[in-house]
């Protein structure tokens, strides 16, 4: 399996090379030359597998440069009942109205990012150890990526983590999860701005090739292909848990801001998983909803990005979107370069002529959910099913109920637990006991460690340089 860039000007790479590189040297994102195709016979063989067994079968198709025994060991150490709370890893449950919810949020940081980050942490350590290299991770988070990355990489040999987050824009729980870590290889940086500013700084640093090479800069943001391939697995697992046989089709409703989670669903569908529709649920920052309804992609500037009660989706420039548009344009690298030059210039682009193809061939539709909607969904699910869902999952449930077709089986991806968003939950249902693991009971009272910096890539580079040269 070789990997290519969406911009077409990067030499073919192996999985291990792609894992450590982040953005491609030409500014694009890395993807497989082609997607492996899964036959009905293979699907039948996979149906009875455990989660680690299934992960090995799927990841082996994308990872050809790591010995099978080593890959199996990494996966078996990653996906355990001890880490994820049950042998199912991503159990599926059914609400009283027939919607299904796949729990992706039972890892150490109570968010779906753990599903990929725990794998990435072990894979990074393996590859760096084999090659005798060091890696300095620069990431940006709107709430969950940061803590998932830090918990997966804390104490790992040969790895330093520099994580950018928007100052004051995450929940108190999310901030405490990150800033309370005292490990010497973890460095939290709060940027005076929005998540999109943090993401732009990461891309600016990644684009400075001399700095990137000198300081061995990599990324764990959803642009990292290792994260995407790990996320593909749970779409297959969710399909098998939600259906009785492989003649059934299901749809997935995915809360989305940066397009990484649903991009993995797109790849699973392209591989042959019987997915009817991929439903993108946005919050008030509805750039993706606008695109899937009109074909027009208009990223907003940071000052036009709203702060909402589903903060992990407060994103107006979806960094993974380029992978999907690469496929939609029949992998035309020239067109991708033109389109993303327009994005870089702040103009966006119009693919309305391809809208029917996007809906019919690729199965995408969308909807959006506002603050009042997610409060209503949290309250409704609590009343009907006696369970608390987090605001992002509530956005997914709202959109799924809105667009569900007669007889359509929809799995909503639960992307976090309610405990991470206590204020919003209490606004929706009043004073109620919100369960959280005992290990996180007094999280917000722990001492916190963070550097606050202006929205400036050069300041961040100076901070990285000074830290590494100590």
TrEMBL record:
Keywords: Lyase, Pyridoxal phosphate. SUPFAM superfamilies: Tryptophan synthase beta subunit-like PLP-dependent enzymes. GO terms for biological process: threonine biosynthetic process. Residues 105-335 form the Tryptophan synthase beta chain-like PALP domain. Signal peptide: none annotated. It comes from the Bacteria. CDD domains: Thr-synth_2. One of its GO terms (molecular function) is threonine synthase activity. NCBIfam families: thrC. This is Threonine synthase. The lineage of its organism: Bacteria, Pseudomonadati, Pseudomonadota, Betaproteobacteria, Neisseriales.
């Amino acid at each position: 399996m070789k990997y290519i860039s969406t911009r077409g000007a990067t030499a073919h790479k192996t999985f291990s090379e792609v894992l450590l590189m982040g953005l491609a040297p030409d500014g694009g994102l890395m993807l497989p030359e082609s997607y492996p195709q899964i036959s009905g016979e293979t699907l039948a063989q996979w149906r009875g597998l455990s989660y680690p067994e299934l992960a090995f079968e799927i990841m082996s198709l994308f990872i050809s440069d790591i010995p099978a025994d080593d890959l199996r060991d990494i996966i078996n150490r990653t996906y355990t009942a001890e880490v994820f709370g049950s042998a199912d890893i991503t159990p599926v449950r059914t609400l009283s109205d027939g919607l299904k919810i796949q729990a992706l949020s039972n890892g150490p940081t109570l968010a779906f990012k753990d599903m990929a980050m725990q794998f990435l942490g072990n894979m990074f350590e393996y590859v760096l150890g084999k090659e005798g290299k060091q890696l300095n991770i620069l990431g940006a988070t709107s709430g969950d990526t940061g803590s998932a990355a830090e918990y997966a990489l804390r104490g790992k040999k040969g790895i330093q983590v520099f994580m950018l987050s928007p100052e004051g824009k995450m929940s108190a729980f999310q901030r405490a999860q990150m800033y309370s870590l005292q490990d010497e290889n973890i460095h939290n940086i709060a940027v005076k701005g929005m998540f999109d500013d943090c993401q732009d700084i990461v891309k600016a640093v990644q684009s400075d090739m001399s700095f990137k090479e000198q300081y061995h800069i990599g990324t764990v943001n959803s642009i990292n292909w290792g994260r995407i391939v790990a996320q593909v697995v749970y779409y297959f697992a969710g399909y098998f848990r939600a259906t009785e046989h492989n003649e059934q089709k299901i749809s997935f409703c995915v809360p989305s801001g940066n397009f990484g989670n649903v991009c993995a669903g797109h790849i699973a569908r392209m591989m042959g998983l019987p997915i009817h529709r991929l439903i993108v649920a946005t919050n008030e920052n509805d750039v993706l909803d606008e695109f899937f309804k009109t074909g027009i992609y208009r990223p907003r500037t940071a000052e036009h990005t709203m702060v909402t009660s589903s903060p992990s989706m407060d994103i107006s420039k979806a960094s993974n979107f380029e992978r999907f548009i690469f496929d939609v344009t029949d992998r035309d690298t020239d067109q991708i370069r033109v389109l993303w030059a327009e994005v870089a210039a702040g103009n966006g682009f119009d693919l309305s002529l391809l809208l029917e193809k996007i809906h019919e061939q690729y199965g995408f539709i969308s909807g959006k959910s506002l603050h009042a909607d997610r409060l209503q969904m949290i309250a409704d699910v609590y009343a009907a099913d006696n369970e608390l869902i987090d605001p992002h999952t509530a956005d997914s449930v709202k959109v799924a109920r809105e667009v569900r077709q007669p007889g359509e089986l929809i799995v909503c991806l639960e992307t976090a637990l309610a405990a991470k968003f206590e204020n919003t939950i209490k606004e929706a249902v009043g004073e109620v006991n919100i369960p959280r693991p005992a290990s996180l009971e007094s999280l917000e009272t722990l001492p916190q460690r963070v550097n606050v910096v202006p929205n400036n890539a050069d300041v961040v580079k100076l901070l990285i340089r000074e830290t590494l040269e100590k």
